[in-house]
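Figure 3 (text version): structure tokens given as input.
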């Protein structure tokens, strides 16, 4: 797609006399930037953005420069935003003056003292009817009511952006299926799980997707406690049987779209997506208990990706947490 022209820098006042083709957007991210620019020029609201909603977090994906000083990757608690109220049906999508529709304590300060006096919030709805995020805008002063033409243009932009996103995510699912098949060639011979090479690639690719779409992802590291003892006292065949048993239990306990790998002799790793911290802790407990019931002792650690931390960093964090757990069992 290197020859695709980025239309995001084309303003509303482009001359109709200019010649040449109008190319499609290369991806959802580029289209989002164009929508933000369009909304800012159409309404003159101080801040315009495309956002993603992840549990109770309101994550900014594309945003214009403004006095609010919000940047892509910044987030807010959803219940502290007017878009959250829109999604709950407690606030209209187009608000020229917030004092007319919401109580004072619902006004979002966005970390500054400017306040919010006017607001636009349009949900981005996917093909399966789930809400991905919003097109939103805020202004520190009340504004006149938008015209019917403006409202129609904004709603049309939201529907078109939702369509681009839905098609791109469908393509992403197909690509993930292909990649999953490709990963089979990077499998561990003993367990049929991903090997270290396959794990490294899965981690890199998921990290890119997290950056593009604001997805959340976490890593779990599981290290068997007694493999050396089994190898030394019962032989390597018994050790291999123990590794295969642990691999089977871990894979059965994981969800279908989790990525499971054997990253070392007695170490396994799990990449899991879209899970809360509470859910991650419960997931780790299920793994430990399932192994324990089968007579396999293991130490488990977890780490989570965020804006400032890659999945590779999350893996390191999980590895360190696993060793803390192991040292608590076997103090030196």
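Below: residues designed for each position.
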């Amino acid at each position: 797609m290197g020859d695709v022209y980025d239309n995001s820098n084309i303003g509303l006042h482009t001359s109709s006399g200019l010649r040449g083709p109008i190319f499609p957007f290369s991806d959802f991210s580029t289209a989002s930037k164009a929508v933000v620019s369009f909304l800012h020029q159409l309404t003159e609201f101080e801040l315009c953005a495309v956002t993603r909603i992840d549990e109770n977090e309101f994550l900014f994906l594309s945003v214009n420069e403004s006095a609010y000083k919000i940047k892509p990757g910044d987030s807010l608690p959803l219940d502290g935003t007017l878009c959250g109220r829109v999604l709950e049906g407690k606030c209209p999508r187009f608000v020229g003056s917030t004092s007319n529709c919401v109580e004072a304590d619902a006004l979002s300060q966005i970390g500054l003292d400017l306040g919010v006096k006017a607001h636009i919030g349009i949900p981005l709805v996917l093909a399966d009817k789930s809400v991905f995020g919003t097109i939103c805008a805020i202004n520190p002063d009340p504004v006149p009511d938008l015209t019917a033409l403006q409202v129609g243009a904004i709603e049309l932009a939201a529907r078109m952006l939702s369509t681009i996103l839905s098609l791109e995510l469908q393509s992403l699912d197909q690509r993930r299926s292909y990649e999953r098949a490709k990963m089979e060639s990077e499998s561990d011979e003993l367990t049929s799980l991903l090997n270290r090479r396959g794990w490294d690639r899965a981690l890199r690719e998921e990290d890119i997707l997290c950056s593009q779409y604001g997805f959340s992802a976490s890593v779990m590291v599981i290290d068997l406690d007694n493999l050396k003892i089994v190898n030394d006292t019962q032989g390597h065949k018994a050790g291999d049987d123990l590794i295969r048993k642990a691999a089977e239990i871990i894979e059965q306990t994981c969800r279908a779209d989790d990525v499971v790998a054997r990253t070392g002799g007695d170490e396994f790793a799990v990449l899991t997506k879209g899970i809360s911290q509470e859910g991650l802790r419960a997931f780790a407990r299920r793994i430990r208990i399932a192994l324990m019931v089968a007579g396999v002792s293991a130490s488990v650690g977890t780490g989570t990706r965020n804006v400032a931390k890659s999945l590779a960093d999350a893996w390191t964090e999980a590895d360190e947490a696993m060793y803390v757990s192991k040292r608590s069992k076997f103090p030196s």
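Residues 148-183 form the longest helix (36 residues).
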